[in-house]
Amino acid sequence: MKILVTVKRVPDPETVIKIAADGKGIATENVKWVVNPFDEYGIEEALRIKEKVAGTEVVLASIGVQASQEQLRTGLAMGADRAILVKTDEALEPLAVARVLAKLVETEKPDLVLLGKQAIDDDANAVGQMLAELLGWPQATFASKLELAADQKSAKVTREVDGGLETVGVPLPAVVTADLRLNEPRYASLPGIMKARKKELKELALADLGVDVTPKVKIVKLEAPPKRSAGRKVENVQELVKLLHDEAKVI
């Protein structure tokens, strides 16, 4: 099998995010960047399949600035075989990202594409679905369990929905997006980190792919959420009910 896994460079969840001076993005100074956590679940699942199915190749793909190499190297250190970086300094919208990935799929011809269900920076939760539509492939989103058939021609995916769990069957090739309960990502070992330095990391220029990435949405303004006000103590239930009704207006 060949599995293509996406890797997005995002701010560390522990980083304090500040709005840029122009109000249309975030200030990137002194920001620590990491692999999108949901993408880590995708990488881990691909590696587990590789351990079960002999001859499986795990290929990582990222779209972004030159520094995205660092996140790809992290995935290679975990155990992936090689990586592809599509270089661009532009912040691409989900549809543009899906179009670029579709172009990579045409070239790589994977049996399975694994993505995080969403990226923690924009929380769009759209690329996987759009990619499946562009490819005309079946999709299974929010996967909490993935089981391949013995012949590797289909998969059974348990996905998390509002009412509980839903199990669907999909023929391969397919697109699957990973939820946080799919697995527990491994840490890169020291030997893995050393080997990652020698693994192939191919760079492509976005302009050379011939993909339309024209923005369809314009960010007008970003605002930080308001600070939470301090809590208040009340003397009795009657006062609490009155405040919830008159001030909070939740009852």
Structure description:
The chain has 251 residues and is α/β, with parallel strands linked by helices. It has one domain (2-223): Rossmann fold (3-Layer(aba) Sandwich), CATH 3.40.50. The protein has helices at 37-52, 69-78, 94-108, 127-135, 190-196, 237-248; strands at residues 2-6, 9-11, 33-35, 57-64, 82-87, 112-116, 139-148, 154-161, 164-171, 174-178, 201-205. The strands form two sheets. Strands 9-8-7-10-6-1-4-5-11 form a nine-stranded mixed sheet, with helices on both faces. Strand 4 (57-64), helix 2 (69-78) and strand 5 form a beta-alpha-beta unit. The longest helix is centred in the first third of the chain and has 16 residues, at 37-52. The mean pLDDT is 93.
List the helices and strands and how they pair.
Elements: E1 2-6, E2 9-11, E3 33-35, H1 37-52, E4 57-64, H2 69-78, E5 82-87, H3 94-108, E6 112-116, H4 127-135, E7 139-148, E8 154-161, E9 164-171, E10 174-178, H5 190-196, E11 201-205, H6 237-248
Parallel strand pairs: 1-4, 1-6, 4-5, 5-11, 6-10, 7-10
Antiparallel strand pairs: 2-3, 7-8, 8-9
**Assembly type of the shown chains?**
single chain
Within the CATH hierarchy, at the fold level, what is the topology? Answer: Rossmann fold
Number of contiguous helices: 6
Q: Please state the average pLDDT score.
A: 93
Number of strands: 11
Elements, N to C (H/E): EEEHEHEHEHEEEEHEH
Please tell me what the overall shape is. globular
Name the structural class: alpha/beta
Please report the distance between the alpha carbons of the first and last residues: 56 Å
What kind of sheet is the major sheet?
9 strands, mixed
Number of domains: 1
| Rg, Å, rounded | 21 Å
* CATH architecture annotation name: 3-Layer(aba) Sandwich
Query: What is the CATH first-level class name?
Result: Alpha Beta
Strand-residue proportion: 25-35%
Strand order of the largest sheet: 9-8-7-10-6-1-4-5-11
